[in-house]
Structures are given as structure tokens and as C-alpha cells.
Amino acid sequence: MSAITAAIGLLRGRPHHPVGADGRMALSDHLRELRARLIRSALFLVLAFIVALFFYDRLLDLVLVPYNDALEQLGQSVKSQVYVASVTGPLLLQLKLCGIAAIVASSPYWLYQIWAFIVPGLHPREKKWSRVFAAVAGPLFIAGVAVGYYVLPKGISVLISFTPANTQNLVEFGEFFSFITRMLLVFGISFEIPLFVIMLNLAGVVSGKQIAKYRPWIVIGTFVFAAVATPSTDPFSMLFLAIPMLVLFLIAEVIARTADRTRGRRKDSKDQWADDEASPL
User: Fold this and answer.
1) Which one is predicted more confidently, 13 or 89?
2) In this predicted model, what pLDDT tens digit does every residue of 122-159 receive, in sequence order?
3) I need a surface site. Which of 86, 212, 215, 263 has the fewest CB within 10 A?
């Protein structure tokens, strides 16, 4: 019974010392809370992994959809086949696929644990912007992954089409899965870049005028990045990544300019009406 009580106490991570009126805790209590949140996140991740094992076949079909769509686009012009290498390959593939699925599926929980540990140490204004960032970052990342998943079949078909005549293209599934994972991460993270620009502006590092000044270089850099990041050589895949990024950058510039004007008005108002400051005249 005592072991169960100790385990429950370990998971709760409650402080052993008095908590101050402003929420301050002893360092040992902070570490105790961090340990509890890490253990809860790990347990939730293990649970998600066990659930993913029961959906392995569906996850496998989901990963193979871009490849199968690419083969349909190629028709009978190129012969290609997926294979799994080595004796331990199938087991490692199942563990890797279910592990990544568990990390993605449990991400709302362990990201919340990280956020809940950091937020008490922030100022009210910082808490407000952290909530905005958390609310916007997730949907943007999902949108980027969705765009990448939509573009992948076209990119894969173009890459496989370089297979010489009278030869067969053999795709090792482990490398194929790593390729898909990297591409989806690139698309997802690229959609987050304008959000980081806004956060830098709110922090006073970058101004809206600076963004507008370097807008031509941002456009060129975005197209170069999209051309390198997309797996195919056709311009349509590049445009599917570059155009949404440029739209998001434009929105980021508008928000940055609006924030700059708002801060400017507040500063002018303080300079004009502050009773404890001397007039510039």
C-alpha cells in the first residue's frame, strides 16, 4: 500500500515546502514537479505506443498511400516495388512506425506538460503571447504536413521516373519511411517560420519596416528553399510550398507593422501625458 502511495505521490509531484504568494517554490520542488511531468509524459507515450501497435496495418497503409499514388501516375512506364531488408527489418519497421505515431498522437499531452511547467515563471504579458503561440503553432504545423502529404505523390513519381529502361526500381521501406518523415517535417516546420518572425517582432528584435525592406530577398529565399526542400523537379511542388509560405510572410509583415504602430502610439501617449517625466519642451 505504501508503494502505491509513493508512486501516486511521485506522479503528482506536489511541493514539499511552502509555496510563496507569487507562486515561487524551492528548487527541489521545481525539480520534483519536472520529474513528475516527465514521468507522466513517458507513461502516456508508452500507452500511445501500445495503442499504435493495434493499428499497425492501417498506419502502414497510410504511409504507402503516396507511393501507391505515385505508381498510378506513372502507369506501366516504370516497374517499382517496396521491400523490407534483413531478418530484423520487419520488427524494426513496426517499432519505428508505431513509435513515431505514438510521439505524434501524444504530442498534445507532452507539449502541454512542457508548457504548464514553463508558464508559471512567465509574466502576464508573456503568458498571453505563449497561449497565442501555442494555439496557432499547432494548426500551422498540421497544415504544412497536410500540404506535404498532398505533394509527395507527385514528387515520388518524378523521382522514380528517372529509373532506366529495362530495370526495376526497388524501394527499401526503411529509407522510404525516413524520406517521408523528413519531407513532412520540412513542410510542417516551414509553415512555422512566419510565426517565429511575428514572435521576434513582438520581442522587439525585428520591425515591420525591416521585414518590408528585405521583402525581395525573402521572396527569392523562399523560392530557393522550396526548390531545395521539395523532392521533385517539377515547379508545381515547389509552388505548393512557396506560395503558402509567402502568404504567411505577408500576414506576418502586416501583423508586425500593426504591432509597431500600436507600440509607437503607446510610446507617444506616455511621452505626452506622463506626469513624472519632464516635457521635451
Assistant:
1) 89
2) 667 666 767 777 778 778 888 888 888 888 888 888 78
3) 86
Closest CA to 159 of 225, 242, 71: 71
In angstroms, the CA 40 to CA 248 distance is 36
Contact 222, 249 (CB under 8 A): yes
pLDDT tens readout for residues 210-259: 888 888 888 888 888 877 777 666 676 677 778 888 888 888 888 888 87
Nearest of 171, 156, 139 to residue 230 by alpha carbon: 156
Give, in degrees to the nearest 5, the angle at Cα 210 between 250 and 198: 50
Residue with the bigger pLDDT between 150 and 22: it is: 150
Secondary structure of the chain in HEC code, one letter for each residue: CHHHHHHHHHHHCCCCCCCCCCCCCCHHHHHHHHHHHHHHHHHHHHHHHHHHHHCHHHHHHHHHHHHHHHHHHHCCCCEEEEECCCCCHHHHHHHHHHHHHHHHHCHHHHHHHHHHHHHHHCCHHHHHHHHHHHHHHHHHHHHHHHHHHHHHHHHHHHHHCCCCCCCEEEEEHHHHHHHHHHHHHHHHHHCCHHHHHHHHHHCCCCCHHHHHHCHHHHHHHHHHHHHHHCCCCCHHHHHHHHHHHHHHHHHHHHHHHHHHHHHHHHHHHHHHHCCCCCCCC
Whether residue 84 contacts residue 95, with contact meaning beta carbons closer than 8 Å, is answered with no
Q: What is the grid cell recorded at 122?
A: 512567465
- CA-closest candidate to residue 167, choices 83, 72, 78, 84: 78
CB 222 within 8 A of CB 245: yes
State the average pLDDT for the chain.
77
